[in-house]
Amino acid sequence: ESSSVEFYLKMDMKKRIHLELRNRTPSDVKELVLDNCRSNEGKIEGLTDEFEELEFLSTINVGLTTVAHLPKLNKLKKLELSDNRISGGLEVLAEKCPNLTHLNLSGNKIKDLSTIEPLKELGTLKSLDLFNCEVTNLNEYRDNVFKLLPQLTYLDGYDKDDKEAPDSDAEVYAEGLDDDEEDEDDEEEYDEDAAPGDEEEEEGEEDEEENEEEEEDDLSGEVGRERLMRFAFCNCLKC
């Protein structure tokens, strides 16, 4: 098992993408996780603009040095690039991923604010992570990043007032994804637990049972009266 896992992790990015497709077409894919595979000379390879519905892309620890070969992904909302060797070239993101809301650059070779300055062109960017990058050691790092990128709500998981983002603000991809699933689950539960008309039938059955009980009470009352009358009649005869 360990050898097959090792082979899977060392697989080059192009083959990994083919494997992740699982007989789907690129336009069917909304989430793509390529963590720990091998990039080709530090470049993204095998990912094309055919992935037009892609909303979540994760390329953690794949040896990237550049994002220049990222295709046009208009619907991409969350991009995970942590634990790579990226040191610049972020200006392409505004063109390639214009609707990006969450970007994780933790563990890259980002040393100064000028490297992330191009991100100000990403008007929808809500959350940025730079953990374990040298830039975080600069004086007044947080204040300066929020000034540089005024559209940001969260930096390294916290807002300007040091309030933590809810669940690391990980609802990006999931939020639309899983509203639909919840709706389906609700519908299934409704269908299973109470199909139309079941409640009326149950109420009708309860009414019938109550009527039967009342009839039994009435009958037992009549039988009791008959017995009393017979007893009284026999006593009169004795007299």
TrEMBL record:
The keyword Kinase does not apply. Keywords: Leucine-rich repeat, Nucleus, Repeat. Residues 167-220 have a biased composition (Acidic residues). Residues 138-156 form the U2A'/phosphoprotein 32 family A C-terminal domain. GO terms for molecular function: histone binding. It holds the Pfam family LRR_9. GO terms for cellular component: nucleus. Residues 157-166 have a biased composition (Basic and acidic residues). InterPro entries: AN32, Leu-rich_rpt, LRR_dom_sf, U2A'_phosphoprotein32A_C. Coiled coil: none annotated. Its main location: nucleus. This is Acidic leucine-rich nuclear phosphoprotein 32 family member. It comes from Seriola dumerili. The lineage of its organism: Eukaryota, Metazoa, Chordata, Craniata, Vertebrata.
